[in-house]
Prior knowledge:
By secondary structure, the protein is an alpha/beta fold. The chain has a domain at 109-152 and 190-338: Rossmann fold (3-Layer(aba) Sandwich). The protein contains ten helices and nine strands. The longest helix has 19 residues, at 2-20. The N and C termini lie far apart (131 Å).
Amino acid sequence: MRWAGFLLVALLFAGGCSGGSSSSARPAATSSAQATRPSAAPQPAQATPAPQLPAYYVESLRARPYPGGKLQVAEEVTCHGYSRCLPGVHTYRMSWPSNGQTMTGLISMPEGAGPFPVVVVNHGFIPPERYGEGQDSLLFAEPMAQHGFIAVAPHWPGYLGSGPAPADLPAIVGQTVTALDLVSSLSSLPQADTRKIAFVGHSNGGGVSEIAMVVDPRIKAVVLHAPVSTDMAQNAHKWWLSRPESLAALGTPESNPEGYRHLSPRNYLQANQAPVLIVQGTADHTIPRDWTEATYSALQASGVQSRVAWIDGADHDLVGPNLADAVSLQEDWIRKALGV
């Protein structure tokens, strides 16, 4: 019995060892390729780039750099052409860079070392072939120089030696860019106090000043003489559509209403912008009175310090006593706004 029991234990031990080596009990082999294959990483979603705004939008103009450059003062033209030959005033030709082009204009200087506050005077629309040096600008500029201001009057792109504006910009926007590059260039003029800059504009030059005043916070005072509308679609219907080359990529108000909305200064007025004076004659046959009243209402509703001064009997081109009144109103407003 002892031998039988011993034999039974031996057989059971041998069977248990044999079962432990059975292939059915081995774990499945894993290939080296399976062991080292990385799991697929999640791919980031492709961001859709925001569409670039057209260059003529106010938003684009606010973001645009205005590097300007060296303001060059050349020969004197006092008492020539449209110069009014005022005592104590010296008017010179000037030039400055804008968009890789050389721009031209006139600068009227008071006597003395300065620094003097600066007035940028933007002339109205005159066809380039009929434009005379200082036309529609020196009449507002030289009286300011006589009273202690530097007055600069740009010739617009394509006028009297000024280079062309960027082809993608409507004419009025190219003119605005030129004027703001001129502002940047004033820092190279030792006599200029660049902390005290005013914009003055007549008619279409008023439109240039309207755009500039909602774009550039360096402008601290604005005077608009019989200005075009702050709703640019109105200007297009009255004038620009007859000169389609002036529209560039802007097109018509019907084809691009959103573009006109983003170019109209009326939609960008802010309470902290420069104070605005509008001067207009009651007999103006060019600028409708309701345009001016709408602009004034928008200024007031936006909290912009503003005023309209109506000159009784004056027409669009301010002349004689009407001009003297307009220039007096202009100087008083700018002095108060600049604190000079």
